[in-house]
Specification:
Layout (H helix, E strand, L loop, with lengths): L1 E2 L5 E2 L4 E6 L7 H5 L3 E7 L8 H9 L10 E6 L5 H18 L14 H22 L5
Antiparallel strand pairs: 1-2, 3-4, 4-5
């Protein structure tokens, strides 16, 4: 079980882990041992995620989410398979946590009377400066 919050957990049956060879440091070990982890989590078909959270996560325009709604995380930062596995799970938990809080709705505001007057006054001054440049009489 992957514990996200006190009330939200993801069962291991919903996570698909695949171990592949990684690039980077490790010497000959890199060529022999599959230490990188590719973690797949089906956001669209998950039974453990509440519907609003699932909708928010799928609405994110993240390149790690496939067209089928599967989140694919690749972890190869560390040299050991176990540490990369923990890293991938931590990143999955962080991604799901980011979708837990509903964004506050934007409250539309209008510019104040003073800000409108300042803007129009600045435009008027700039217009006067440009007009005076164009119509110089040098006689």
């Amino acid at each position: 079980m992957l514990q996200i919050t006190d009330t939200l957990t993801i069962p291991d049956a919903e996570l698909v882990e695949r171990f592949v060879r990684s690039a980077g440091p490790g010497g000959q070990n890199v060529n022999k041992v599959a230490t990188a982890v590719e973690l797949r989590f089906d956001l669209a078909g998950s039974k453990s995620l509440p519907e609003p959270v699932r909708a928010r996560l799928l609405a994110k325009r993240d390149r790690r989410i496939t067209d089928d709604g599967v989140l694919v995380l690749s972890a190869q930062r560390f040299r050991t398979q176990e540490r990369n596995r923990e890293d991938a799970r931590e990143r999955l938990a962080a991604f799901i946590t980011s979708g837990l809080a509903a964004p506050k709705p934007r409250v539309a505001t209008k510019p104040t009377r003073g800000s409108k007057e300042r803007r129009l006054g600045a435009k008027r001054e700039r217009s006067t400066v440009k007009r005076n440049r164009a119509t110089r009489d040098w006689d």
